[in-house]
Amino acid sequence: MAADGAANAFQACEDLVRTADKDRWLASLFVPAPLRADLMALYAFNIEVAGVRERVSAPLPGEVRLQWWRDVFDGEARGDVSGHPVAAALAQVIARRHLPAKPLIDLIDARVFDLYDDAMPSVADLEGYCGETSSALMQLAALVLADGRDPGTADIAGHAGVAYALTGLIRAFPLHAARGQIFVPADILARNGAQRDDILSGRSSDGISRALEDLRELARRHVAAAEALQGQVAVEVAAAFLPMALCRLYLDRMDQFIKAPFANQVEAPQWRRQWLLWRAARRARFGPRLADL
């Protein structure tokens, strides 16, 4: 690909991430420019795959789109991959940073679940889904920042990715319900007497609130587990895990949302998110200050 075409592809990735995944874009501001561009390609790929359901009218066309992405990594994609800016940019990143194809394909496979309205059977199934999507993305980001070397971050990526995904799924609970999806595991719903029909109809209930609270506590446990591992993360790859710094902010702001999830949202001003990311980046680079302890 010509230099201008490559630059345009990476710029398209950044524009997409800035619009569709603002928190990861904000976190990427603490990454050196060349590496930052590579992260943008990785995050843009995630947006493309995660957004397939929103762009199709039925599961089958969604399956076809996901298969095209699998074929990109197998070298069998129909059409010119260079004509798709995200695919073109990511192909360069994979070659430059020696990224393995398997976690990318596993991420695509996990997203097949998004195309259907099947129940999430259990907490273990949900954690597995979050691990193959969000945790895998963090681990791949760490590989990019380590220039393809093993960053030794599998454990923190596991917990941080699950925490970040759970936080996002709770926030998106009303949106998913409106389109027929329920990511809250069936075992949590049953334990709390939460009815599927109430969720899909947008009717709040005590059972739904208790189920969401259980999910919030699960997210908090993964946040705590990830935070306990942060001291083992090398400075050069720490930015891969910066988005997790926003989990506690969102989780702490969920009280009213959990009481009435169809009438409230969980938001935080951008200045607050940027400050938390800056503080997390500073601590990763210099260690905690007395005032942070």
Automatic annotation (TrEMBL):
Taxonomic superkingdom: Bacteria
Signal peptide: none
MF GO annotations: transferase activity, transferring alkyl or aryl (other than methyl) groups
InterPro entries: Isoprenoid_synthase_dom_sf, Squ/phyt_synthse
Pfam families assigned to the protein according to its UniProt record, in alphabetical order: SQS_PSY (PF00494)
Name under which the protein is recorded: Phytoene/squalene synthase family protein
Originating species: Phreatobacter stygius
